[in-house]
Design a protein that fits this description.
This protein is α/β, with parallel strands linked by helices. It has four domains: about 5-85, no CATH class; about 105-160, N-terminal domain of TfIIb; about 170-230 and about 400-470, 3-Layer(aba) Sandwich (Rossmann fold), CATH 3.40.50; about 245-275 and about 285-395, Dimethylsulfoxide Reductase, domain 2 (3-Layer(aba) Sandwich). Helix content is about 40%, strand content about 20%. It has 17 helices and 18 strands. The protein is globular and about 85 Å long. The chain starts with a helix and ends with a strand.
Length: about 500
């Protein structure tokens, strides 16, 4: 009798030697190097004996092609059944008292606001049988016009993340909300200086609660920390215009767009807002067959760069030199420090187009260096972008963190000048460049409170933990731009 398992092992071994060693992609270094353990794992794919055996006479007997295919199909099916896992039993239980607004299998939609790290997008949530299953942009929003990003689309998955914390804890032990509220209140009363550490918050009601909290504890302060920092842009605008804020950019009104490393269609500042604007300028109208011209100067291929009409590469260290060369080409003053002939020609061409479209052009930059951003501000002033493609009447409120403020907080914690710190939607132990300094300082703080929804690296170092709610199950509001307010509501 011939054991089918032995035949399967022989086939798996031959498959490994012929295919695995010839292919270009591998699952592990062991598979790449052809280790004995990897070969053994491939040979032992079916670890249990199959529930039947085939006779040697079967393979030696002369058979017709049709009989051979029948035997082959039977053996393959049996192997699949033997190797498969038992499917779980799912029972459909009808409603005893069916809610009026729920029809099984029929989806409902409700409007809410996606909020994460200062970003706020008006969305529609698709809910079926009491569970949100899909996020789409709200086309009625004057801010995004229905635009969303991959991060917004994927946010529904975080609602069902099993790593979310379910209960408040003190020193890792589960407690009730009443108990932890009383314990934190007592601890803060004698802690000394209290610091509220958050990511950028643009909720009007949330900012009012923060003001009331700071009023209750004299000497306390609010520190904003953004893992994706826009400190350079904020400080440059303060130096150039006297305002530590970010203006609104309108790509739809720009006939010439020059980006210096700003991936405004993918990650830079507000891609959900910029992408619909960019599309408007790229569509050709039959009555006016013209579209915007897009120049991209960057160090690595980005989503925005892949859509540019003309794209030029340079070293990351040359971003400032490219900005200065572009300004000099516009004003006719100073010489260019660019040695690459192709890059130099691209700067000259972009400057010529910017000059020809004064008042209808825009230059943006992704650098976090305030000096580079000040040069970009000078370029936009030279091409008359203010009042058309750049609007200061409505400012962007998605980013407000200053790196120096957070660095000062880290120094104060390590010097034991901070008595308590309350952390909301921030994980500096993971995202800060000198995470060890922050972790060491946090251990020296007497009272540490985390309101993060997961047991992340920062939360693990905090004594008190109160998990925050997901935006799909919360009430709230957001003001991503001055004059644009969006509301949050739970799906149930």
């Amino acid at each position: 009798m011939l054991n089918v398992k032995n035949v399967t092992i022989k086939i798996a071994t031959d498959f490994y030697e012929y295919y695995i060693m010839e292919k270009k992609y591998w699952q592990s270094f062991g598979e790449l190097n052809g280790s004995e353990a990897s070969k053994k794992a491939a040979a032992n794919e079916f670890r249990e004996d199959l529930p039947f055996e085939l006779s040697d006479k079967l393979f030696k007997a002369p058979t017709q092609r049709r009989d051979f295919l029948k035997y082959l199909g039977f053996s393959t099916t049996a192997a699949m059944v033997a190797a498969s896992c038992e499917m779980p039993v799912r029972k459909a239980i009808p409603f005893a008292n069916k809610p009026e607004d729920i029809v099984p299998g029929v989806a409902n939609y409700y409007a809410t606001t996606y909020v994460q790290d200062g970003e706020a997008i008006s969305v529609l949530a698709k809910v079926r049988d009491g569970r949100p299953i899909k996020i789409e942009g709200n086309t009625l929003s004057p801010f995004t016009s229905g635009g969303t990003s991959a991060k917004v689309q994927a946010s529904v998955l975080s609602l069902y993340d099993t790593a979310r914390l379910r209960f408040p804890t003190i020193d890792g032990k589960e407690v009730t909300l009443e108990h932890i509220d009383q314990s934190i209140g007592t601890a803060l009363a004698g802690a000394g200086q209290v610091v509220l550490l958050t990511s950028s918050i643009n909720s009007p009601s949330g900012l009012e609660v923060i003001n009331q909290f700071l009023t209750k504890y004299p000497g306390s302060r609010h520190v904003v920390y953004d893992a994706d920092s826009y400190t350079g842009l904020l400080l440059a605008n303060e130096a150039s215009y006297g305002r530590r804020s970010i203006p609104s950019y309108n790509f739809a009104k720009a006939k010439v767009i020059v980006s210096l490393g700003a991936d405004f269609l993918g990650t830079w500042l507000s891609p959900d807002e910029f992408a619909p604007q960019y599309v408007q300028g790229r569509k050709i109208d039959e009555k006016n067959p013209a579209m915007s011209k897009h120049y991209q100067f960057e160090s690595i291929l980005s989503l925005t760069g892949s859509n540019a009409d003309e794209r030029y590469m340079h070293k990351p260290s040359e971003t400032g030199a490219v900005a200065v060369a572009l300004l000099n080409a516009l004003t006719g003053q100073g010489a260019s420090n660019i040695s690459d002939a192709k890059l130099k020609a691209g700067i000259a061409k972009a400057a010529k187009d910017l000059s020809a479209h004064r008042g209808a052009a825009l230059v943006v930059c992704g650098s976090n260096d305030p000096n580079v951003q000040q040069v970009v501000n000078a370029i936009n002033n030279a091409i008359g972008a203010g009042g058309t493609t750049i609007d200061w009447s409505s400012t962007n409120k998605s980013k407000a963190g200053i790196d120096a403020d957070f660095a000062g907080l880290v120094n104060d914690m390590n010097a034991e000048r901070v008595g308590a710190v309350v952390i909301i939607s921030s994980n500096p132990v993971y995202t800060w460049s000198n995470s060890k300094a922050f972790a060491d300082g946090l251990k020296k703080v007497k009272v540490s409170v985390s309101l993060n929804p997961k047991n992340d690296e920062t939360t693990q170092l905090c004594k008190y933990v109160i998990p925050d709610h997901h935006y799909l199950e919360s009430w709230g509001d957001a003001e991503p731009k001055s004059g644009f307010v969006s509301l949050m509501q739970p799906f149930l």
